[in-house]
Amino acid sequence: MVIRQYAVIGLGRFGTSIARRLTEAGQEVLGIDVSEERVEEAEKFVTHGVIADATEEKALTSLGISNFDCVIIAIGDDLQSSILTAMLLKDLGVKKIIAKALGKRHGKLLDKIGIDWIIYPERDMGERVANQLLSPNMMNYIELSKEYNIEEIMIPSTMAEKTLRELDIRAKYNISAIALLRAGGDIIISPSPDEIIQKGDLLVMIGNRDDLATFSSIE
C-alpha cells in the first residue's frame, strides 16, 4: 500500500471525518486548527496535531506544508480564512489542494485560485446517499479524486470463509484491500493474503470508482 502525507486544515466535523478516515486507511495525517481543544481531540486519531493559523505564511512554511502530497482546506464558516489559506497554499507550491466550499460564489473563487478539487458538502452528501442506494453493499466512502475512492464494502455471502488469496480481488476487480473491519469491531490494517473473510466483515477498498462499483454490486 502506498502511504501518502495529508494535511487537514480545519478540524470541525467535516475536517475531522476526513482526517479520521484517512488515518484509518493507514495514511499519515497532520491535523491543523487554531483551536487548542479541537487539536487535542484530533490527536487521538491523526498522526500529528498542530495549533496554527493557516492564514499565516510563516506557520505553513514551518510545517513544511509544500512537502505534503495533498492538503485539504476544511475551514468551517470563515470564507476569508478559507480564501487566504488557499492562496497561500498555491503560492507555496502544494501539489494537490482540496477545499470545502461554503456556496457557489465561494466555489467560484476557489476555482479561480486554482484549487484542484472543490467539495460542496450538501451536494456531495446527496451523491453519497445516491451512491449507497445504487451500491447496497457499499457502507461508506472517501472520494479521493474524480476517478478514485476509498470505500467500505460489505462482503457478499458468496465470498465468506475464503481467504483474500483465494478471492484474488486485486487481479479480478483491479482494486486493493487496505483494511478489514471485523463484524465484532476489530480492525486489521493491510490484511494478510491468508486472512479468512467472515460473514458480516467489511473490506476497506481503494481503486477506480467504476471497479469499486462493480465489486460492491456482487450478491
Write a brief caption for the model.
This protein is of the alpha/beta class.
Keywords:
9 helices, alpha/beta, five-stranded antiparallel beta sheet, six-stranded parallel beta sheet, 219 residues, 2 domains
Could you explain the architecture of this structure?
The chain has 219 residues and is α/β, with parallel strands linked by helices. The protein has two domains: 5-119, NAD(P)-binding Rossmann-like Domain (Rossmann fold, 3-Layer(aba) Sandwich); 124-216, Regulator of K+ conductance, C-terminal domain (Alpha-Beta Plaits, 2-Layer Sandwich). The chain has nine helices and 13 strands. A six-stranded parallel sheet has the order 3-2-1-4-5-6, with helices on both faces. Strands 7-8-13-10-11 form a five-stranded antiparallel sheet. The protein has a two-stranded antiparallel sheet with strand order 9-12. Helix 4 links the parallel strand 4 and strand 5 (97-100). The chain is elongated and about 55 Å long. The model has no long low-confidence stretch (mean pLDDT 86).
Shape: elongated
Count of DSSP helices?
9
Helicity level: 25-40%
Order of helices and strands: EHEHEHEHEHEHEEEHHEEEEH
CATH architecture of the largest domain: 3-Layer(aba) Sandwich
Q: Average pLDDT value?
A: 86
Q: Order the strands across the largest sheet as they lie in space.
A: 3-2-1-4-5-6
CATH topology descriptor of the largest domain: Rossmann fold
